[in-house]
Design goal:
Radius of gyration: 30 Å
Strand order of the largest sheet: 11-12-10-13-14-9-15
Structural class: alpha/beta
Bound molecules: adenosine-5'-diphosphate, zinc ion
Largest sheet: 7 strands, parallel
Shape: globular
Number of strands: 30
Length: 737
């Protein structure tokens, strides 16, 4: 057939001889790029595919079907494979785009958080599993009938398991499969948390609990976006109440996500979940082993897994049909991811709920100021659980002025607290001493010349750990032995420990009560979820009399025999210029105090402080959270600080201090000027040197109505960051180190 002139022209003018699709890959790229579709492949947005990238292959996600890159088609590469997998739902893709825009991150970097178990896309390499297939003949020989009965529960089983459970041969299973009576498919571990018990809770709720549960159930079942704060003191039954919202979402056929801070620490939480739902939740956090991640990721994406309990990263799983998010301990700072994509999981959870048209439930005994202001402005619903379950009373809080009644020289426990520890021990009850400092002493110096041990890569003192007889940097992990002689003046045995860490407090307690069994609960001693489980059980079983703990003790644990809490240094978190120092200290110490007297016995709490008049300490003593928040809100409003204004941070770092400062000055000069936006800095960061890099910060402050992202985009488009330097944008910064 002769080619006409015009068809030749078309062939030349329309280079897309093959169809294209834009594929997003999980690398720090700002957008999806064009790939060619092989002739026999058809894709839709959300499909998981495999594409070449540089010299490698990578999984990616089809983002749009129209290719738009102006690129020589000869240079385009083919999509190599389409995975036989549920496409990523559109709402999830919208969510990833939203997060990328808001946090000013590369879309590909955000996708990476969702492709967090790439192996899950590959078919599993295991034996077949069998299920019943189609109609069975009326009459079956006994051996076959046994197999049919066994498999009638719908759970696929491998041949070895069927043979064992039904007492038959593997050959019989194969012959039934060949006859079409059994269906074979590749076996893999079943998705976790599939069948959950949705019967009503076995608890008898109090009137307040019941009405909160009813309200939550209604919001969870409404099929539309809402945000609600569930506010209630520790032990008031918030968890049991929000479980009812979870049950409702699952009843509606949707999935639920419970976000928790520091998930691995919550063995008690998991036991409660199992008691309520008759099965364990699907867990998602950094320590979940790869094989389990794969199974969970698949179960979530296919919609089989109904409830996920996870750390902030669980928000980025590609749920088939998410219908509820609970953010427990919504005030917790660990919801903010401080590296990579800097996002706040609580805030992004609300965005996800809005996009998905469902309810987000924030839960706390000490809600953040942001959340409380949103409640007051009527943006969030509000539910309160006023009393502790079964009438357990809130502890008595005593303020111990370290000026008026100081500990004796070289000690850190004041006489009042000493007495309380002795009494508690004599009564056969448990005490908790709280100090948010690992190790023995935060600073070691030479008594002769004043030399201090400092980290070579960070602006930080080295912390002595007697346990490992080493000095350690808590920022980068640097370790060194304690030398015999001072590196500066060569004097021997001249070192003095300054200040207390938990190890030193333990030593002091052992001197005070030699018969008491003491125990340190800190993240460097207790390093795995199993160890935490064990430690919590030992405390419950009263194997320890006095627990000395850092902040990992503050959360969620319920110890009925613990009646006395001592806070060694209530002022510790108040120094430094952090915007939320007061709020965070209040939250932490309130939680620590809440560990006392959760059983029938009355608890008591001692707060050691040099600042008994400080507003945080007074609010703690009066147990007046709302007054504290009101004062805090007034001050922030006056200063135009969040939640009444907006903040963004720029953190610039690099190994060469001069080049860094030069660059920062240039960046500062390029800042566009507007009346209602203030740019502060560059200034050395409080951690001015970290892991071998010098650090400078800018703080950008603006009114609520201003889009800092637009401003920063305008500014940063004029800036070229040299390769040795790193510039990070932190929208809504939570930490200012
Ligand atoms: P919160 O989440 O507010 O700290 P929890 O839900 O953890 O409170 O409840 C504290 C303890 O009281 C848990 O052991 C819980 O099982 C128990 N509890 C709460 N409400 C009831 C109830 N109505 N009946 C029996 N036990 C309850
Ligand atoms: Zn260091």
């Amino acid at each position: 057939m002769a080619m006409t002139q015009s068809s030749l022209l078309i062939a030349e003018d329309a280079p897309e001889s093959g169809k294209r699709a834009q594929v997003l890959v999980p690398y720090p790229l700002s957008r999806a790029y064009d790939y060619l579709l092989p002739g026999d492949m058809s894709v839709q947005p959300g499909d998981y595919v495999r594409v070449p990238l540089g010299k490698r292959d990578t999984p990616g996600v089809v983002w749009t079907l129209e290719g738009k890159d102006k690129i020589d088609p000869a240079k385009l590469k083919n999509i190599q494979q389409k995975y036989a997998f549920e496409p990523m739902p559109q709402v999830h893709r919208q969510f990833l785009e939203w997060v990328a825009r808001y946090t000013m991150s590369d879309l590909g970097a955000v996708l990476k958080m969702s492709l967090s178990a790439p192996e899950a896309l590959q078919p599993p390499k295991t034996a077949n599993a069998y299920t019943l297939a189609g109609a069975m003949p009326e009459k079956l020989p006994a051996a076959r009938r046994k197999i049919v009965e066994l498999l009638s529960d719908g759970v696929p089983r491998r041949a070895v398991d069927i043979a064992r459970e039904a007492g038959c041969s593997a050959a019989l299973i194969r012959s039934m499969a060949a006859a079409g009576q059994l269906a074979a498919r590749p076996a893999s571990s079943p998705a976790p948390c599939r069948d959950i018990n949705l019967d009503d809770t076995s608890l008898t709720f109090s009137k307040d609990q019941q009405s909160a549960a009813d309200a939550l159930r209604k919001l969870a079942g409404a099929g539309k976006f809402s945000t609600v704060l569930l506010d209630g003191v520790t032990g008031s039954g918030k968890t049991e109440v929000y479980f009812e919202a979870v049950a409702e979402a699952v009843r509606q056929g949707r999935q639920a996500l419970i976000l928790l801070p520091e998930i691995s620490l919550s063995a008690q939480f998991l036991e409660r979940f199992e008691r309520r739902f008759g099965t364990a939740p699907a867990l998602w956090h950094s320590e979940v082993p790869a094989a389990q991640r794969r199974v969970t990721w698949t179960g979530v994406a296919e919609g089989k897994t109904k409830v996920v309990v996870g750390a902030r990263s669980a928000l980025f799983l590609p749920y088939a049909d998410l219908g509820l998010i609970i953010v427990d301990e919504e005030h917790d700072a660990s919801f903010k991811q401080e590296e990579g994509v800097m996002y706040h999981a609580r805030d992004m959870a609300i965005v996800r709920a809005r996009l998905g048209g469902f309810a987000a439930v924030l839960v706390s005994a000490t809600p953040s100021l942001e959340t409380m202001v949103n409640v007051q402005q009527g943006k969030y619903h509000y539910l309160q659980l006023p009393a502790r379950h079964a009438g357990a009373k809130l502890p008595d809080i005593h303020i111990v002025s370290l000026k008026l009644a100081p500990p004796s020289r070289g000690k850190f426990i004041s006489p009042l607290l000493e007495k309380a520890l002795q009494e508690t021990f004599a009564a056969g009850e448990q005490s908790l001493l709280f100090l948010n400092r690992r190790g023995y002493a935060p600073l070691t110096l030479c008594r002769t010349c004043g030399f201090r041990f400092q980290c070579p890569s960070c602006s930080a003192w080295l912390v002595e750990h007697k346990r490992f007889s080493r000095l350690q940097c808590h920022h980068c992990g640097f370790l060194q032995n304690v030398p015999r002689a001072c590196p500066s003046c060569n004097d021997e045995d001249s070192f003095a420990a300054c200040g207390p860490g938990v190890e030193r407090i333990q030593e002091e307690v052992q001197g005070l009560l030699p018969d008491a069994r003491t125990f340190i609960l800190a993240s460097d001693v207790i390093t795995s979820p199993n160890m935490i489980r064990g430690a919590v059980r030992d405390i419950e079983d009263r194997k320890h009399d006095i627990i000395i703990g850092t902040q990992i003790i503050a959360k969620g644990h319920h110890f009925p025999s613990l009646t006395c809490v001592g806070v060694i240094d209530a002022d510790l978190g108040l120094s430094g210029g952090d915007l939320r120092a007061g709020e965070r200290t209040f939250q932490l110490l309130h939680q620590v105090a809440g560990r006392a007297g959760r059983g029938e016995k009355m608890g008591r709490v001692y707060l050691q402080t040099y600042m008994p008049e400080q507003s945080v300490i007074r609010a703690l003593a009066k147990n007046n959270r709302d007054e504290f928040l009101a004062v805090e809100a007034r001050e922030r409003e006056k200063a135009g600080m969040p939640p009444f204004g907006r903040l963004a941070g720029l953190i610039v770092s690099g190994p060469d201090e001069m080049k860094l400062d030069q660059f920062c000055r240039a960046v500062a000069q390029k800042a566009p000027r507007y009346d209602d936006i203030r740019v502060l800095g560059p200034a050395p960061a409080p951690m001015a040197y970290l892991r071998g890099r010098h650090r400078r910060r800018f703080l950008i402050k603006a009114g609520k109505e201003i889009s800092l992202q637009k401003y920063l985009a305008e500014w940063l488009s004029t800036v070229k960051v040299p390769s040795a330097l790193l510039l990070k944008v932190d929208i809504d910064p939570q930490s200012f180190f």
